[in-house]
Amino acid sequence: MIIKKSFKYRLRLTREQESLCSQTAGSCRYVWNRALALKKELWEKKKENLSCFDLNNLLAEWKEELDWLSSPPSQSLQQVNKDLDQAFKNFFSGRGYPKFKKKGVNDSFRLPQGVTLTKQLSKKVGQVNLPKLGIVRFTKTREIEGRIRHVTISKSCKNWFISFNCEDIPQPKEIPQSHIGIDRGIKIFAQCSNREAIPTVSPLKKNLKRLARLQRQLSKKKKFSSNWRKTKQKIQKLHNHIANLRNDFLHKVSTQLAKSHSLIVMEDLKTKDMAKSAKGTKEKPGTNVKAKSGLNRSILDQGWYTFQNHLSYKLNWRDGRLVLILPKNTSLECRICHHISKENRINQEVFQCQNCGHTENADLNASINILAAGHAVIACGVEALASTAKQELLIRKPAMV
Ligand SMILES: [Zn+2]
After folding, report:
1. Given Cys at both, which of 16, 211, 282, 330 links 369, Cβ 3.0 to 4.6 Å?
2. What's residue 401's pLDDT?
């Protein structure tokens, strides 16, 4: 299996480098938009399709026409044509139609060649030689592993970042043989069957008041005035901060779990569906929308779906496995005698079996059931329903009586 990984760092650019980065991102956007418009027009008028090769030829003409298109690295501009070609392939296989790019939204460009890491300036400052930009410094927060395939330079909230996309990552030699089940919850993010409990970090909830205040301020300001822009920027920055906190948490937890266990079993919670369902449809409006959307926000806020994805690929790297089972009775079944009843749940926290009297933390009981369901399914070979290529969705075996 080819393992690909990217390593992202904040860049420390000089003024000249920063302006060249902005210029390159801008030129890439120009090429994308012009090529997209042309492709669209030709298709609508003559049903002709421009290939990546045609676009690269056109690019040479555009460069003669516009001097400024020659200053950015030409390989970055050619990458745009490649991306556009891919975007159309995606469209023909059922994904959305390629969109025009806007200034200041996802500014980025890619360098496929001529990237060499040079001697580090200090422990925390790395240096890399890039085409046209020369030696560029970045804050090195961790080691780069594997072989660099290409780099992507991107801008987010006034800062520029470099992402090294690598492959041939050396694999860890020791593989743990531990198996756990995880019950996901609102208060406790993940209750593990080995009694470990990971509490919830809810960055959006924490910053909600501040966000609401800023949004109120924004609504009172004259649109597009300089004060309006300033507040708008503050909001953007806060959103960015929230996203960073959430990403950081999800990565740390998933890395730790994937490192320590070779099999992880979770319920296949269709979080996207759960989040969608509160509003309902036009024909069938949802009930109790406000309370449900509160729950939904906290589900999204915790990024369960992202967490599941992180776990899946991080386990894959280490030859581990994520098994998803159908959520059925895992919270109502006694893990000792397998009696299933709604009455077993005394309240949100406590589980007490009405048959054998077994009493335990409700999430812990559920997580042990989840692990058992995963094991049963693997042992019986009741495999099926592959939901995506990356994950396996397994049918939960009926409870043992
Ligand atoms: Zn029992």
Report:
1. 330
2. 29
